[in-house]
Amino acid sequence: MVLAAGEGSRLRPLTARLPKALCPVGNVPLLDRALTRLAGLGLAGSDRVAVNACYLSEQVVDHVGARAHLSVEPGDPLGTAGGLGNLRDWIAGRGVLVGNADAYLADPQAPPGPDIAALLDGWDGRSVRLLGRPADDPAAPGTFSGHCFVGFSLLPWRLVRDLPPSFGDLVRAVWRPAEAAGALTVVPYRGTFYDTGTPADYLAANLHAAGGGSLVDPTATVTGRVARAVVGAGAVVHGEVLRAVVWPGGTVGADERLTDAVRAGGGLTVPAAGR
Hints:
The protein is an alpha/beta fold. The chain is built from seven helices and 22 strands. It has two domains: about 190 residues, Spore Coat Polysaccharide Biosynthesis Protein SpsA, Chain A; about 70 residues, no CATH class. About 20% of the residues lie in helices and about 25% in strands.
């Protein structure tokens, strides 16, 4: 299941008109990156993959189409646990690999899918597994066995079947109880991870996707200078773009210098310096 129901409030105003799951990283919507990673594990199609939607749900539904089973949550998002509870009939006794649509992962040693395959290898079907990276402070709140969660977890049906279709989060409903019972394992991820939740991390993920250079969509018009940047489809850049992202349809005028920022359509600019 790919969690794609959230509003992405920390990315506002970028997410005022576009759900966070569809925000592009390296000119690829985050949700497509998640679906590609699952496909790399052999998980594809509406019988095996589900996507939930709530905020600006019609955009998510149109974007996913027939690629996955769609679970549209009425009212406010149900959270990470409630979203699973809402899909109990579809899950129907199976274990669940749950991924956050806003998680950017990249491992230079393995393509998407095989890069997280260790999370599934040898699973007993009863324990809880989390993908993690060593935390700077292993004792910090929110860590698991000294690791920070990096976007994917593996849950057994015995714990999913009791989740109600009401608001709740997996941390309190599943992960911490499993940890207390000695039934939670953290599987280390060796690659790069950003949760893309803030403008700074969103920019950092884009720059990482650009590989230290620039990514410019072939349909963009660029007459200015572009360095360490990502320029989307149909964008127009006549000025200078440095360590920045220009969304599809965005424009940078000849007299502008866009640095450490994200430019969307209509001239919307969101500063993204610092972390």
